[in-house]
Amino acid sequence: MRTESGWLKDRIRDVPDFPRPGVVFRDITPLLRDPNAFRAAVDALASRFAPARPDKVLGIEARGFILAAPVAYRLGAGFVPARKAGKLPSWVEGREYDLEYGTERLEVHADAIGEGESVLVVDDVIATGGTATAACELVGRLGGTVAGVGVVAELAALGGRERLPGVALESLVRFD
Predict the structure, then answer these.
(1) Which domains, ranges and CATH numbers included, belong to the chain?
(2) Is 115 a catalytic residue?
(3) How far apart are CA 127 and CA 34, in angstroms?
(4) 81, 53, 57: which is closest to 150 by C-alpha?
(5) Residue 40 — φ and ψ, nearest 5°?
(6) pLDDT at site 133
(7) Is CB count within 10 Å lower at the N or C end of the chain?
(8) Which of 63, 83, 95, 161 is catalytic?
């Protein structure tokens, strides 16, 4: 199975002016619909974090869910959905954060992560790092430790990596 970043990068399309003028959205849906690319991405994320032996994999809504659930399965870990505000049916812990084009709130069930559990955070893209930082802070608030952050694509020029000092961040594809 090929996992070189160029091969996967070719399956991520640019959508200009989405969700607002001036923003170039990195769309991973072409990668997801290609069974070999999807498998390669899931396998690569799982293998990079297998030595950390996470107890849980937290997937960030919405495309992070698509990746995190099979990564959790591959690692023999539980899956934790991190949702936008008001979407979870039970008690939640939440955190507001800034996006490159607005503000959002991320929530997880208050009982989703146990004291001392190791949690891998998975999303499709890291841009400014606001979403990943919020997810990592929620893991800590619930008593867990962050095993790392895994993403398909990193938008390096937006500096998200710098917002996660001390956190193992693995990206399969890098856009400079």
Answers:
(1) 5-175 (3.40.50.2020)
(2) no
(3) 24
(4) 57
(5) -60, -40
(6) 97
(7) C
(8) 63
- Cα of 112 vs its chain's centroid, Å: 17
Radius of gyration of the chain (CA): 15
100 catalytic per annotation: yes
Tokens of 42: 């899931």
pLDDT, tens only, 14-72: 999 998 898 899 999 999 999 999 999 999 999 999 999 999 999 999 999 999 999 99
Residue with tokens 């870990």: 77
Three-state DSSP class for 157?
Answer: helix
Residue of 4, 13, 39, 100 marked active site: 100
Q: What is the DSSP letter of 39?
A: H
